[in-house]
């Protein structure tokens, strides 16, 4: 079963059957990639592409997608004479293939059900990273390729020169010219351009002209993973482009260099690497191999993103409860029960991951958290029920299973880093603010709440804003103001003066800061909330998370389906980056909120509009 993705409809709840099933000795994240029989992948690497390219079978991708499950579901009958040979012991590869085929009917049934009734967690085929045909052929043959880098790749990742392993890198002269044009200024693009120029200068230092022609070893600066060579364009390449393409445009000149390289180095596979979609489209239209830069993608498929929640199988207690130990501990006035279990599913679990078991026979469900893993032995801790009014957090109670998991992370002082994913209306901001106010004003674990977010406009920018830093940031914090109004509804008996005093007290403990002034700061005993974190790059996210001093808790909230920053995708977002890198750490946790709780109007609108 694929891992639950953030649903496209905020009102849709992920049922128990939609959560990843733990399997013996296998991580649920990696099992997805191995077990799922994706017809899109068959389209990418199967006979459909070859036949379509040769002209024998020109069908649309939708037709091929529809035919892929049908082809798999109708295996050809084996001849009668082969039956005796089948009884012999099969090799390991054949046995693995047999197991896959046995599991295939269930997967194909899910695919057929998805075709009839689209599930909100279904993965979009357009998100699959596809290599060019020439690149795949070179990979199968084990040949080293020559990657021609576009300027935007170097400005996006200054270290991209050393990310191509054993393959060679070629830099056209126009790429160096564009780097020179973008080196001025204080933006991140300008800093990256200057960094690339300094790296190229270090590579070319103390080198003869003949050595430049033969290629410079990329491992010269200590990057041992880069085993290829760096080539510069040292002569004018006369490559005829199709009529109508202006020769003065930089992109067209780079395309001419790629075409000339193919003619000059006929024995090598030449691949253009560019972050510009239109550049790749033009290259493919001209018959040139072109690819996106994949190294910045944390995950090729966002369906494999760590969800933080795993459903235990029905036979979990029967297989893992033979030598089970249980005890109770009281920490911070709260009593919790611990279970030490041993079994084959334990290695596939992660620290601070939430597990749940909801039996169908009417028995009480079990909700727990992984607190310790040693080999095949794990310690499970029962959760505090924040759905009950006696355990409310600043008047807020959990309305569903995922919100209860999130509040257990937010209210745990041992967890320093929390990430919450979810669509609009799932309660990310409300839960974060309620937990912050409770721990700042009631338990006094933290001194104050600091709120920040990326100032990326959705539409046209309205220009400069007047006032101080906090006044300039206030228009971007409308979501927090709306949630504060809900949280500041105190007892009506307090009167207007009492409500005004409460609001002033709460406002005095909440500071709104801009990301532009975060570098060099250190936050001590703060409750830091980073909203709209999906618009941050991995470098910006690293800058923010490393601001944490002693006693500081950082929350990252966001929805990777709504990215406003150019050049960022679901796979390369800073939020995806930290979710993947922090999984399994004892002082971090992650939950994907799945159900919208805003209002019945918002839930219905998200379904029908």
From TrEMBL:
Residues 110-126 have a biased composition (Basic and acidic residues). Belongs to the PhoH family. Residues 62-80 have a biased composition (Low complexity). CDD domains: PIN_VapC_PhoHL-ATPase. Keywords: ATP-binding, Nucleotide-binding. Residues 145-281 form the PIN domain. Residues 1-80, 92-135 are annotated as: Disordered. It comes from Massilia forsythiae. This is PhoH family protein. Gene3D superfamilies: 5'-nuclease, P-loop containing nucleotide triphosphate hydrolases. PANTHER family: PIN DOMAIN-CONTAINING PROTEIN, PROTEIN PHOH. GO terms for cellular component: cytosol. One of its GO terms (molecular function) is ATP binding. It comes from the Bacteria. The keyword NAD does not apply. The keyword Ligase does not apply. InterPro entries: P-loop_NTPase, PhoH, PhoH2-like, PIN-like_dom_sf, PIN_dom.
């Amino acid at each position: 079963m694929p891992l639950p993705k953030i649903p496209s409809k905020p009102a849709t709840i992920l049922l128990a059957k939609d959560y990843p099933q733990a399997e013996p000795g296998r991580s649920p994240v990696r099992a997805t990639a191995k077990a799922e029989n994706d017809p899109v992948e068959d389209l990418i690497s199967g006979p459909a592409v070859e036949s379509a390219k040769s002209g024998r079978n020109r069908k649309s991708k939708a037709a091929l997608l529809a035919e892929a499950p049908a082809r798999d579901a109708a295996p050809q009958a084996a001849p009668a004479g082969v039956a005796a040979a089948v009884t012999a012991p099969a090799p390991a590869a054949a046995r693995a293939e047999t197991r896959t085929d046995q599991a295939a009917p269930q997967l194909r049934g899910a695919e057929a059900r998805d075709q009839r009734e689209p599930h909100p967690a279904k993965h979009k085929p357009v998100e699959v990273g596809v290599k060019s045909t020439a690149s795949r052929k070179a990979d199968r043959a084990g040949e080293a390729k020559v990657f021609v880098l576009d300027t935007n790749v170097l400005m996006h990742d200054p270290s991209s020169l050393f990310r191509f392993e054993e393959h060679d890198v070629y830099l056209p002269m126009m790429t160096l010219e564009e780097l020179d044009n973008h080196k001025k200024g204080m933006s991140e693009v300008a800093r990256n351009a200057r960094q690339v120029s300094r790296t190229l200068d270090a590579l070319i230092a103390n080198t003869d002209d003949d050595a430049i022609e033969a290629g410079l070893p990329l491992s010269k600066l200590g990057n041992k993973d880069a085993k290829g060579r760096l080539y510069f364009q040292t002569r004018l390449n006369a490559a005829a482009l199709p009529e109508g393409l202006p020769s003065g445009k930089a992109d067209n000149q780079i395309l001419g260099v790629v075409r000339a390289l193919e003619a000059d180095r006929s024995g090598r596979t030449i691949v253009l690497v560019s972050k510009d979609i239109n550049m790749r489209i033009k290259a493919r239209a001209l018959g040139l191999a072109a690819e996106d830069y994949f190294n910045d993608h944390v995950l090729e498929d966002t369906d494999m993103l760590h969800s933080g929640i795993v459903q235990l199988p029905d036979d979990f207690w029967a297989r893992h409860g033979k030598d089970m130990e249980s005890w109770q501990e009281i920490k911070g006035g709260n009593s919790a029960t611990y279970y030490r279990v041993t079994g084959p599913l334990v290695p596939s679990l992660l620290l601070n991951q939430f597990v749940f078991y909801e039996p169908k026979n009417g028995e009480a469900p079990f909700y727990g958290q992984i607190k310790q893993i040693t080999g095949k032995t794990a310690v499970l801790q029962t959760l505090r029920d924040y759905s009950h009014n006696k355990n409310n957090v600043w008047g807020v109670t959990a309305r569903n299973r995922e919100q209860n998991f999130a509040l257990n992370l937010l209210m745990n002082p041992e967890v320093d880093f929390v990430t919450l994913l979810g669509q609009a209306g799932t309660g990310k901001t409300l839960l974060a603010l309620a937990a912050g106010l409770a721990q700042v004003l009631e338990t006094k674990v933290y001194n104050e709440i600091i709120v920040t977010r990326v100032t990326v406009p959705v539409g046209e920018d309205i220009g400069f804003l007047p006032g101080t830093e906090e006044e300039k940031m206030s228009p971007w914090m409308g979501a927090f103001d709306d949630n504060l109004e809900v949280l500041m509804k105190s007892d009506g008996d307090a009167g207007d003066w009492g409500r005004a005093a409460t609001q002033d007290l709460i406002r005095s403990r909440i500071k709104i800061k801009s990301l532009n002034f975060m570098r060099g700061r250190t936050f001590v005993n703060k409750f830091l909330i980073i909203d709209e974190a999906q618009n941050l790059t991995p470098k910006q996210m690293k800058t923010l998370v490393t601001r944490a001093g002693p006693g500081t808790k950082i929350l990252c909230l966001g929805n990777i389906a709504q990215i406003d920053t150019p050049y960022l995708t679901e796979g390369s977002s800073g939020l995806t980056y930290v979710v993947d890198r922090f999984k399994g750490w004892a002082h971090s946790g992650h939950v994907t909120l799945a159900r919208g709780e805003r209002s019945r109007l918002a839930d219905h609108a998200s379904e029908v509009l």
